UniProtKB/TrEMBL annotation:
The lineage of its organism: Bacteria, Bacillati, Bacillota, Clostridia, Lachnospirales. The chain crosses the membrane at residues 65-83, 103-120, 141-165, 177-198, 210-229, 235-255. This is Uncharacterized protein. It comes from Dorea formicigenerans. Keywords: Membrane, Transmembrane, Transmembrane helix.
Length: 268
């Protein structure tokens, strides 16, 4: 706020205090109240200048790095648990992954969604009113920021999976992409359905319900992958079925995402 604008506003506030019936303050009290109002006016002026890009960058130090750290830790821990003492034997790892492609890469993909859910749940549970007040970004803005951070992490992990596949002849890059993206999109669709139903029924998303519903959807996806890999012959070889599921899940995710961003609001 410029100096001239500041002085004009201060004079207006002073005039209002003089004219308002029943407001009989001494000079010290009046100056204190004027200063409080001016501080609030300056704060409101600052809020208007914050764009979503600036907001997104600032939130990296609060939320983004935590999401990326959690995603990286999971991949490292899962790698160690899945391969055990053979974690450093790349030839043995390639052989094991070749036998368990759908489950291995599908598990990594679904787990990324499971990691993201608690961060979304926290936004809904505590409503982030202080962030909305400071930036004029409501729940949809916070939701969008968390999803962008999560997507960046997922893209990075997907790139690592593709790089791994490119280094081994018995691991197909196309298969890796299919087995990673199908469970990812299906689990995202399931979480969006849970969230939209909660908002439609209650008018607002409750954090605990989002957490339980979203994590349950992801666990079901992991269970289907585990059962399919163990019990269904040629589970990963039905390319047409996998391709159809991928297409439907991708389109569904886009449509649901658009509707979801319209419906999520603190004002609900």
């Amino acid at each position: 706020m410029g100096q001239k604008k500041w002085l004009e506003t201060e004079q207006s506030v002073s005039d209002i205090l003089k004219l308002k019936p029943g407001l009989d303050f001494d000079q010290e009290e009046k100056e204190m109240r004027i200063q409080r109002i001016m501080n609030l006016a300056a704060f409101n002026g600052k809020k208007e200048s914050i764009g979503f890009g600036n907001f997104l960058v600032r939130q990296i130090s609060y939320t983004g790095w935590k999401i990326w750290l959690a995603q990286g830790i999971f991949v490292a821990v899962f790698w160690i648990l899945f391969f055990g003492s053979r974690a450093s034997d790349m030839a043995e790892i390639a052989r094991l992954i070749g036998r368990n492609l759908p489950f291995f890469f599908g598990m990594i993909a679904v787990a990324q969604v499971m990691i993201l859910i608690p961060f979304l749940e926290r936004s809904f549970r505590y409503q982030m009113y202080e962030m909305e007040c400071a930036t004029r970004f409501s729940c949809s803005g916070m939701l969008g920021a968390c999803l962008i951070y999560g997507t960046i992490g997922i893209v990075g992990i997907f790139g690592l999976c593709m790089a791994f596949a490119a280094g081994y002849k018995n691991v197909s890059a196309g298969a890796v992409a299919l087995y990673f993206l199908v469970p990812l999109f299906v689990s995202c669709n399931g979480c969006m359905v849970v969230l939209r139903n909660m908002i439609k029924q209650c008018g607002v998303a409750e954090g605990r319900e989002l957490f339980l519903g979203g994590e349950s959807v992801c666990l079901i996806c992991i269970g289907v992958l585990a059962v399919g890999a163990r019990c269904v012959p040629g589970f990963g070889g039905h390319w047409i079925i996998w391709g159809v599921i991928l297409t439907v899940a991708f389109l569904g995710m886009i449509l649901q995402g658009r509707e979801l961003m319209k419906g999520v609001s603190y004002a609900a």
